């Protein structure tokens, strides 16, 4: 692979001259393994022919169909004959001579012809996706675009995916998504060179797949009470499912169906209450969350029902995997059910967790008998993992690590950062979403599915990763688009591109064109927010507003009167002096006119803090440590500490317990220079930082690790500093940083912290 590319690099470098297309103008996402750009270009015309062989016919037809709406060209797709011209052709072949792995391809564009060689048809398909990205972004338009030259730069690309599982999940149960959008979603998956569509088809709030043996699943389970008294829901017929599976197959996307068990199954129980422990009655749930009512694990009829359902599911989905859910199954009904208790006794099970394990193992065996593999959320590890099960790790990476260490395959799907139902940013203008901290584009891009603690051999068990789109708060296809675009382009790069090629600035540069593609598709993508605006800005005489366009080609518009900027608002071009208290609101306007959500910054004129005198200052800060049940910052005055002492810095004391506790840190900060100081806290859960009596950083509330900042002006000398913190249980952390005159952002060092 390398050898050939080195030779071609030399040849192409020779012809590269000024004014020609440069490598940084090429925007291939996910970034290819290797690429060399030359000086010429290929022009796609109505006479371009697509040459195929048997194995690439499907891809050739797809490519011609995909070109058609925007270009208006009805390209000929044919097998080559001796009389064919050697010019103006796109040749699609399978080759076992190229040195790329499964799904890999080799793309060679010269002014005369384009050659795609794939190691398999999927590889050829991905080579064609790259061709689309090399064309002007308008090629993604669904209507004809006149007056465009459809040119492709001379280029050589060698490419293959890093992971075999590159997926997107979609919950169509909390809110039903129309069939056309499901296909559109598959198109998004394919254009990002992803290959797995995890279709979450059953839930407490709705059953979405027709099962012929159980008609009540679509008569009753597919519908719930709507918000205005009507009924809400829908389902896909088996014909529609087959249509989706075929559509996906044409795009090398495998559809993995998810049929939830033993929990998240109230919709099915509403139709068949005899499958529950209590006998019901039940209604298809209208509230989100977790239900206590689940399938009865002691009743043989439950297994008969699920096996019959799976029989039909298996017929519909050629996927090697069937996802059986397995998550969030409360055990309270099983604890009180004679049938479940009898099962526990007869099977010599330790407890209800082992009963869950019994349930999953039984389903795994059933699926294995049908030639299928079981995959489930990481709760399937509880009570012992079924022998050949694959784990989908959502509660962090821990489940995946445990699976990989015990020799099981896993797919990484951690809440942070692959739950795309989390907000895109912490702008207060983001649409209502589930309460996780935002999974920003940057966070998704920085993610790596392979945890460091695994050996190379264990890491082989990580099949890849996928993003989750749960739809409690997402009611429409447009809103799904807003949550997945462009984050799935970042995830695509994570799961496709070599780890060593991670390059955030380069990715952002390429993203500029990706946004144009989304725009050409009329997709309701999330437009990136302006960079650089802090929430709180304190100034003395003059403040400064400094912003940065988040992507090339976009402009920022802003107001200082508290109104949301519209398309005619002031354009930001350079730093702006602020002289009075005001609220700045800024938005990005994309080249296609789309605007981002607003970001808000408060500017406040302040007087500097006077220093205080401290007699006999001693090194270190005082800490008080409290035990109790805290879900917010307590009133420390009313509490008796479990421990007190002095420690060097603004950190959590040593030896804190795992469950709920609170901490107060108090001391004096010695400041050398007059000026503006910004303090930052990153904490899990909440914290507050005070200088004197002023609350400077408000990072309170129950949350995962998140950073907040605040600014004050300090005169030289000693300033009282207090940090309060609480932990509600689970992970705990506190990190305090500052930045000021001649101080780069860093932790506050022990040599400026004192107490008396
Ligand atoms: C899940 O989010 N309950 C898998
Ligand atoms: Zn039971």
Automatic annotation (TrEMBL):
<dbReference type="GO" id="GO:0016020">
    <property type="term" value="C:membrane"/>
</dbReference>
<feature type="signal peptide">
    <location>
        <begin position="1"/>
        <end position="23"/>
    </location>
</feature>
<dbReference type="Pfam" id="PF13290">
    <property type="entry name" value="CHB_HEX_C_1"/>
</dbReference>
<dbReference type="InterPro" id="IPR059177">
    <property type="entry name" value="GH29D-like_dom"/>
</dbReference>
<dbReference type="GO" id="GO:0005975">
    <property type="term" value="P:carbohydrate metabolic process"/>
</dbReference>
<dbReference type="InterPro" id="IPR037524">
    <property type="entry name" value="PA14/GLEYA"/>
</dbReference>
<comment type="similarity">
    <text>Belongs to the glycosyl hydrolase 20 family.</text>
</comment>
<keyword id="KW-0378">Hydrolase</keyword>
<dbReference type="Pfam" id="PF07691">
    <property type="entry name" value="PA14"/>
</dbReference>
<dbReference type="GO" id="GO:0004563">
    <property type="term" value="F:beta-N-acetylhexosaminidase activity"/>
</dbReference>
<keyword id="KW-0732">Signal</keyword>
<dbReference type="Pfam" id="PF00728">
    <property type="entry name" value="Glyco_hydro_20"/>
</dbReference>
<dbReference type="InterPro" id="IPR011658">
    <property type="entry name" value="PA14_dom"/>
</dbReference>
<dbReference type="InterPro" id="IPR017853">
    <property type="entry name" value="GH"/>
</dbReference>
<dbReference type="Pfam" id="PF02838">
    <property type="entry name" value="Glyco_hydro_20b"/>
</dbReference>
<protein>
    <recommendedName>
        <fullName>beta-N-acetylhexosaminidase</fullName>
        <ecNumber>3.2.1.52</ecNumber>
    </recommendedName>
</protein>
<dbReference type="InterPro" id="IPR025705">
    <property type="entry name" value="Beta_hexosaminidase_sua/sub"/>
</dbReference>
<dbReference type="GO" id="GO:0030203">
    <property type="term" value="P:glycosaminoglycan metabolic process"/>
</dbReference>
<feature type="domain" description="PA14">
    <location>
        <begin position="616"/>
        <end position="752"/>
    </location>
</feature>
<dbReference type="InterPro" id="IPR029018">
    <property type="entry name" value="Hex-like_dom2"/>
</dbReference>
<dbReference type="InterPro" id="IPR015883">
    <property type="entry name" value="Glyco_hydro_20_cat"/>
</dbReference>
<feature type="active site" description="Proton donor">
    <location>
        <position position="328"/>
    </location>
</feature>
<dbReference type="InterPro" id="IPR015882">
    <property type="entry name" value="HEX_bac_N"/>
</dbReference>
<keyword id="KW-0326">Glycosidase</keyword>
């Amino acid at each position: 692979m390398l050898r050939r590319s080195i030779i071609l690099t030399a040849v192409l470098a020779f012809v590269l001259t000024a004014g020609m297309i440069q490598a940084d103008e090429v925007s291939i996402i996910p970034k290819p393994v290797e690429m060399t750009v030359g000086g010429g270009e290929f022009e796609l015309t109505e006479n371009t022919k697509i040459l195929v062989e048997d194995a690439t016919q499907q891809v050739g037809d797809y490519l011609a169909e995909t070109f058609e709406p925007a270009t208006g060209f009805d390209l000929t797709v044919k097998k080559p004959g001796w009389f064919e011209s050697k010019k103006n052709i796109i040749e699609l072949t399978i080759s076992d001579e190229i040195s790329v792995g499964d799904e890999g391809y080799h793309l060679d564009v010269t002014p005369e012809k384009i050659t795609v060689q794939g190691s398999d048809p999927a590889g050829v398909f991905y080579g064609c996706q790259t061709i689309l990205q090399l064309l002007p972004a308008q090629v993604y338009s669904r209507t004809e675009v006149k007056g465009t030259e459809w040119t492709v730069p001379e280029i050589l690309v060698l490419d293959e995916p890093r992971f075999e599982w590159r997926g997107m999940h979609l919950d169509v149960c909390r809110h039903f998504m129309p069939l056309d959008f499901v296909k559109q979603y598959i198109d998004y998956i394919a254009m990002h060179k992803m290959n797995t569509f995890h279709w979450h088809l059953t839930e407490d709030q709705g059953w979405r797949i027709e099962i012929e043996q159980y008609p009540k699943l679509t008569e009753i389970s597919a519908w719930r009470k709507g918000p205005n008294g009507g009924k809400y829901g829908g389902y896909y017929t088996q014909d529609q499912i087959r249509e989706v599976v075929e559509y996906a197959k044409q795009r090398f996307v495998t559809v993995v169906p998810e049929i939830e068990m033993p929990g998240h199954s109230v919709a099915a129980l509403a139709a068949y209450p005899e499958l529950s422990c209590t006998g019901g009655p039940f209604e298809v749930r209208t509230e989100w969350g977790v239900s206590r009512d689940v399938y009865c694990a002691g009743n043989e009829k439950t297994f008969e029902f699920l096996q019959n359902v799976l029989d039909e599911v298996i017929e519909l989905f050629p996927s090697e995997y069937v996802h059986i859910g397995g998550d969030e199954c409360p055990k309270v009904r099983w604890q009180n059910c004679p049938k479940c208790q009898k099962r526990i006794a007869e099977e010599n099970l330790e407890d209800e967790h082992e009963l869950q394990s019994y349930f999953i193992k039984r389903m795994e065996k059933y699926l294995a008998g049908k030639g299928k593999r079981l995959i489930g959320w990481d709760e399937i590890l509880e009570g012992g993992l079924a022998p050949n099960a694959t784990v989908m790790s959502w509660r962090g990476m821990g489940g995946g690590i445990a699976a990989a260490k015990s020799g099981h395959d896993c797919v990484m799907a951690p809440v942070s950062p692959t739950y795309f139902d989390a907000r895109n940013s912490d702008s207060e203008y983001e649409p209502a979403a589930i309460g996780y901290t935002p999974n920003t584009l940057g966070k998704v891009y920085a993610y790596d599915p392979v945890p460091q603690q695994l050996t190379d051999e264990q890491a082989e068990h990580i099949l890849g990763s996928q993003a989750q789109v749960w739809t409690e708060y997402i009611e429409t296809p447009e809103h799904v688009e807003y949550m997945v675009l462009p984050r799935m382009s970042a995830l695509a790069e994570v799961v496709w591109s070599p780890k060593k090629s991670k390059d955030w600035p380069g990715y952002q540069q390429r993203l500029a064109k990706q946004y144009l593609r989304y725009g050409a598709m009329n997709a309701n993508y999330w437009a990136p927010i302006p960079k650089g605006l802090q929430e709180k800005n304190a100034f003395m005489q003059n403040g400064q507003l400094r912003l940065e366009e988040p992507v090339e080609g976009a402009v920022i518009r802003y107001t200082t009167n508290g109104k949301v900027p519209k398309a005619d608002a002031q354009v930001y071009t350079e730093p702006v002096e602020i002289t009075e208290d005001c609220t700045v609101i800024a938005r990005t306007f994309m080249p296609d006119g789309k605007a981002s959500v607003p970001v808000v910054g408060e500017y406040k004129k302040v007087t500097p803090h006077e220093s205080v005198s401290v007699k006999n200052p001693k090194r270190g800060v005082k800490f008080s440590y409290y035990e109790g049940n805290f879900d917010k910052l307590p009133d420390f005055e009313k509490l008796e500490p479990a421990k007190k002492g002095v420690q060097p810095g603004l950190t959590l004391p040593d030896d804190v317990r795992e469950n709920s506790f609170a901490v107060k840190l108090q001391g004096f900060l010695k400041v050398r220079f007059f000026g503006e100081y910004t303090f930052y806290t990153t904490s899990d859960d909440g914290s507050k930082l005070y200088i004197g009596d002023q609350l400077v950083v408000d990072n309170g509330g129950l949350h995962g690790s998140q950073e907040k900042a605040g600014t004050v002006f300090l005169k030289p000398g000693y300033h009282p500093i207090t940090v309060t913190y609480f932990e509600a249980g689970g992970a705990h952390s506190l990190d305090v940083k500052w930045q000021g005159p001649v101080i780069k952002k860093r932790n506050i060092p022990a040599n400026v912290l004192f107490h008396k």
